[in-house]
Amino acid sequence: MTEFADIWSYLAQGPLLWLTATLVAYLVGAWLQTRSGKKPWVNPVLIAVAMLAVILLATGTPYETYFEGAQFVHFMLGPATVALAVPLYDNRALIRASALPMLAALLTGSLVAILSALAIARAFGVSGEVLISLAPKSTTAPVALGVAEAIGGSPTLTAVLVILTGITGAVIASPILNLLRIRDDRARGFALGTASHGIGTARAFQESQTSGAFAGVAMGLNAILTALIAPIIIRLFT
Amino acid sequence: MIQSIAILLGFQLAGEITARALGLSLPGPVLGLAALFIAFVIWPRLHEMMAGTARGLLLHLSLLFVPAGVGIVRHLDSLGAQTIPILLAILVSTALAIAAGAWVFTLVDRLTGGTE
Q1: Residues A188 and A101 in one domain
Q2: Continuous H helices in B1-116
């Protein structure tokens, strides 16, 4: 019989183990969220990331080894971004009907997200690559990575900040919007999608279909807007 | 399904090539998204054909963020003292952006006589 350590050292080097672990960790997160009655703070991405991070640290596995397996999942972000054209097209009539409020909310949400994050971080002494990596945090991951690379940030750090922003938005949106007594599902979804991209959109779909559709549109539009304005804003801050 | 995936990848590839060739700071997938949307407007049947696969892919969108999120293990040491300011910046800016965005949406909707 082969020793466990031998099996481990064989598996830990190949992509199979970490690809499987990524899917299983996510399924556990999704299962826990369903069990909790879809509570916003029980977020499947947060749970999966935390579980996998603990496993990597405990087993002394470098991120590079993990990523060799997980890259197959990561790669799908590109085609998934292109696929956003489908919900955008599905909702084109809704979009046309609410074009003006959407445009105003998009510009406001996107600018507030970038400017306030940079201002707060800089006030507390964050600078250089870390500050730059923070700029595209509200846009969807594949776009944020591309933007970070283009403006001199760290794509891997940006990816982490993007995901933290998504989780944060998904958790805080409902309490904040309820406090402000904003009940229009279009406004709720659109604001969440602008600030918290795909993870926010996933949360918006739990509130209502309308909310989710507007969040999806906002995510798509903010992807384009952030790619255009983040490089300009970052020049003002560095 | 394979057809739809090939089309998605094809548009992404075309986007990447365009972005590199023209030296744009727009990421390739975003150009692919815009081009595919235009293609749907021109050929609505393309949308019909791809809708199922695209929705299936987007249904599990949050799974696709997991590998990048695990990248936090690489930055735990290097962030150090900057961790708290970064988390604070993310929390406050996200709250402000959601509040401001939703408020402006309802305001402009009312000003332009939208239906609610």
Answers
A1: yes
A2: 2-22, 28-42, 44-59, 66-70, 72-79, 83-111
Same domain, A70 and A87: no
Could you say which of A100, A117, A176 has the minimum Cβ distance to residue B108? Answer: A100
Query: Mean pLDDT for each consecutive 10-residue tract of chain A (238 residues)?
Result: 75 85 95 86 88 94 92 90 86 86 96 96 90 91 82 87 92 94 94 92 83 87 89 85
Chain B residues with CB inside 8 Å of A125's CB? 82, 85
Q: What is the pTM of this model?
A: 0.83
Considering the domain architecture, whether residues B25 and B59 belong to the same structural domain is answered as: yes
User: Could you list the residue range(s) of the whole structural domain that residue A70 is in?
Assistant: 4-75
Q: CA separation (Å) from A59 to A18, A40, A54, A65, A82?
A: 12, 30, 8, 12, 36
Query: What's the pLDDT score for residue B116?
Result: 47
| Same domain membership, residue A228 and residue A169 | yes
ipTM above 0.90 for this complex = no
CB A151 within 8 A of CB A135: yes
The reply to whether B59 and B85 lie within a common domain is no
